[in-house]
Amino acid sequence: LFPGVRQAQWLTKTKLVEGLPPAVQGIMDNPAHGLQELEERAKRAVSHARLWDTAEVAPRREQYCPVLFENLIHICRLMSAKYPSLSKRMLARNCRIAATWERESILLQVRGLSGILMNSVTPIPPVASKEEILATREHVLETFYPIAPTIDLQEVNVYKELNDTGQCFGDGYPYSHPHTLFFLESANVRTDRFRPEQLRAKMLMFAFGNALAKAKALHGNDPKVLEQPVVVQSVGTDGQLFQFMVFQLNTTDLVSNDGIKNLVWIDSDRNLYEKAQCVPEVKKKVVTKPAGISGFQPDTFKKFLALYLHGTV
């Protein structure tokens, strides 16, 4: 998506709210959850991914980005000792999503691999109140006139309008609710990775697609304002910079610009650490910069953990 999130907002009929919603921020700020107690583990997780998990002088991004993700997820799982319901989660990889909707007179479809998908036995509760949802009726969606909002979308012949929550899930699958999507931009060459703005647009489109497919599976294909909105989260990272997103599907009536809008909260461009010095810098036989991780940002780690805990605590 060339214009990024602004275009994704129009395509999904969504209002943007900067920052994370109060429900997630409240998890971060509540000392009872003990998030700060895991900060040292998170620092070691970064050091393991960037400095220790390789025989090479400096690991490539395609190696350390997935390792860092697995390390952080492992730390999150440790919280299941305190909150047993966290064990009712499952990570699904290489799942395909398909969701179809009409926007104005255009038939749209999001389809493809939806990153690493964490599913849950129970859905995430709505994060916006009924008053906040009703207030979205006054929101005016940005247009791109004279540029068409579908300018850079791939045009294909659609022979079947699919709404599928993923080939991973069969009837009776207990972890049937999409919880959080994880996108790892681990290509070593910068030009092969999504830029942060395009990554956020991709995160929004796939969070919307998963929410829409789930809503249609629960409530049918008729366009309607949902009594129980569907919430899907998304996290994107290149192994250092993180993007956080919470999407709430309030309506499947997407044809018109009028009426209830969907909502997305985005917290952008948060470094987990500033720099990884893989080998010490030596000048005149004196170590001027020792090997190690500098500028660790505990709040970024807490946001990752809070999104994992969201819907349980």
From TrEMBL:
GO MF annotations in UniProt: structural constituent of ribosome
GO terms, biological process: translation
InterPro entries according to UniProt: mtLSU_mL37 (IPR052482), Ribosomal_mL37/mL65 (IPR010793)
Main location, first listed in the record: mitochondrion
Keyword Methyltransferase: no
Gene Ontology, cellular component aspect: mitochondrion; ribonucleoprotein complex; ribosome
UniProt keyword terms in alphabetical order: Mitochondrion, Ribonucleoprotein, Ribosomal protein, Transit peptide
Keyword Nucleotidyltransferase listed: no
Location within or outside the cell: Mitochondrion
Source superkingdom: Eukaryota
Similarity comment: Belongs to the mitochondrion-specific ribosomal protein mL37 family.
Protein name according to UniProt: Large ribosomal subunit protein mL37
Organism name: Machaerirhynchus nigripectus
